[in-house]
Specification:
alpha/beta
Amino acid sequence: MCDLTFQPGGEASLMGAMGGALFEGFMVSKALKILSIYGVGKSMFFWRSHDGIEIDLLLQIGGRLYPVEIKKTATPMPAHTRSLQKFKELAKDSVSDEGVLVCQVSSPTHLPFNNIAIPWQQFPNWLAEKLR
């Protein structure tokens, strides 16, 4: 199901109750690594509204905010992008038109409201492209 590179027994951790949180932490560490390589250290944020809406990663690149949600799912649904859409509505002109859902899909998949699900393996390259 998941071919993340972990220590022995690590894949079992992804299947447990904390699997989603571990997957999210793994992807956040990948983003931090790419931002560090490109020398853009303070460009990554977490956002939560007063009513509980969250964005896992807000990436500030070239004066724009790119909202990124991270889900362990291999079958993304429109509901997975609700927080992306809400943030884009609130942030208006300062946010990218495209929201990104990083998950376990096998290929990029278009979702409603100009959101896209991308395979987690492609996320480092997606981010590097945005930084170039």
